[in-house]
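Practice problem: predict the structure.
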Amino acid sequence: MNNKKWLIGMMVFALLIANAPTADAFWGKKGGDRRPDKNKMIERIADKLELTEAQKAKFKASGEKTQEFVKIKHEAVKSLAEKLKTELGKDKPSRWVVNRLIKQMSSLKTDIQIKHANHLIDLKQELTPEQRKKFEEMLKDRHKKFGKRKPRKI
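Answer:
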């Protein structure tokens, strides 16, 4: 009887191990970083819009500056979120500290949104009317494809 239980347990374990990649794929997990490659994304947009070399260079430069800015701000938001979590985990959290941390996080998130909007404006200013029309269609398609996004958890 013990041997049967052991054999069944081992078979279940083997099945779980064999199906782990399938489970990860089901839950949307892949090995490594799941974020899209920004350089490939920029190239794809540049190709679809048929940007000139000068436009492509400006777009890449602006995109790289924006990415670096956003990365720094996101790290700061994560740090503040950890401090907020720590403060709220205390027996007697300070209302003043909690409010200050939330306001700082909100300010950083606003900075990120402004940077993204300015990047979009800069791109649009460089486009010809035909390219602008293609770009607007791309944005509409993107909204149809992804729909309304849910806010990120911090």
